[in-house]
Specification:
Blueprint (H helix, E strand, L loop, with lengths): L5 E7 L4 E7 L10 E5 L4 H4 L1 H19 L6 E8 L5 H13 L3 E7 L3 H7 L5 E6 L3 E6 L5 E5 L11 H17 L7 H8 L7 H6 L6 H5 L2 H7 L4 H25 L7 E5 L1 H5 L1 H14 L5 E4 L4 H13 L1
Parallel strand pairs: 1-4, 4-5, 6-9, 9-10
Antiparallel strand pairs: 1-2, 2-3, 6-7, 7-8
């Protein structure tokens, strides 16, 4: 058995779930005793049954990695995409308590752990830009607000999905002669093995073209953006959309003119410098530039921090 109380941090997204097992008392090294990973943990996208199974599997893998028997921990925080509302949080919490995963359990959306990983006081703004997009913030008065995160059908502006879809639209408009000539048409045809522009219909509407796979085509737009005006315009518009979310939160949460911490994560925001710089330029132009920008490659670290805070309260 373990010699000291333990805590759990879980980060569940649309493609994977990561669980970290840590000691209750933090040390300077930020020790993590065990790490586990499983499939998607987004209860809305994957379904509650699948998400819960994957969360459980990731937790079990973390105990195996730590060479410890599975046991109830002092506190656990689950930061899950698709769990931003009370209805999802209550269902996951009830499941976790039924399985006695932890003495104290907290379920949050996937944004709060990102901010917690970047800001010790959990104050500032978190921007997620991967397959989808969302901004979430918290001020020193404890007030919280969010902007975006409406899903790919009616929102997710600036996301990889939105950028890829915009690129495909420019490509087929070019094929019709309705839009500007753009290298995007040939690039998408090559990527999707579509000999003619009309073959893009079969490729895009194929059952194998999932939302995640379509979002993965955003790299085509970024690859072309430095030389192709149509692609560059798509990236510029995406940066503006993401910056607008942050501007709204700055106004709602009344962040001071001296700035705030901006924590960013998601495959697009972490890997596409052109988009990230575009967002920061927009914020500078709008007079709401952050004092510090921190990239969060492992949001689960913030879930561990929130679990530790939960155990102490």
């Amino acid at each position: 058995m373990s010699l000291a109380p333990l805590i759990l941090g879980v980060d569940g997204g649309g493609t994977k779930t990561v669980a970290w097992l840590a000691p209750l008392v933090a040390d300077d090294a930020g020790t993590i005793l065990g790490r586990g990973q499983a499939g998607p943990g987004n209860p809305r996208a994957a379904g509650f049954e699948t998400a819960q199974a994957n969360i459980g599997a990731a937790i079990e893998a973390a105990f195996v990695d730590a060479k410890l028997p599975k046991q109830s921990v002092a506190a656990a925080c689950f930061g899950l995409a698709g769990a931003g509302r009370v209805v999802e949080q209550e269902q996951i919490a009830a499941w976790a308590k039924e399985l006695q995963l932890a003495t104290r359990v907290r379920i949050t959306g996937d944004a709060e752990p990102i901010l917690a990983a970047a800001a010790p006081d959990n104050c500032g703004i978190a921007l997620i830009c991967g397959t989808g997009s969302l901004a979430w913030g918290r001020n020193r008065a404890g007030e919280v607000a969010r902007c975006g995160g409406w899903g790919y059908l009616i929102g997710d502006e600036g996301s990889a999905y939105a950028i890829a879809r915009a690129g495909l639209r420019e490509a087929v408009r070019s094929a019709d002669g309705r839009g500007y000539l753009t290298s995007l048409l040939a690039r998408f045809q090559k990527e999707l093995t579509a000999p003619t522009p009309q073959d893009l219909i079969d490729r895009v509407y194929s059952p194998q073209m999932t939302r995640e796979r379509l979002a993965g085509l955003a790299h085509i737009v970024f690859d072309a953006a430095l030389r192709d005006p149509a692609a560059n315009r798509i990236v510029t518009d995406a940066a503006r959309d993401l910056a607008d979310m942050i501007v709204v939160l700055c106004r709602q949460l009344q962040f001071p003119a001296s700035g705030y911490i901006l924590a960013v994560t998601g495959g697009v925001m972490l890997n596409e410098t052109l988009l990230r710089e575009g967002v920061l330029q927009c914020l500078e132009h709008d007079g709401v530039a952050p004092t510090t920008v921190i990239s969060v490659a492992e949001p689960v670290r913030g879930a561990v921090a929130l679990a530790r805070l939960l155990a102490a309260t």
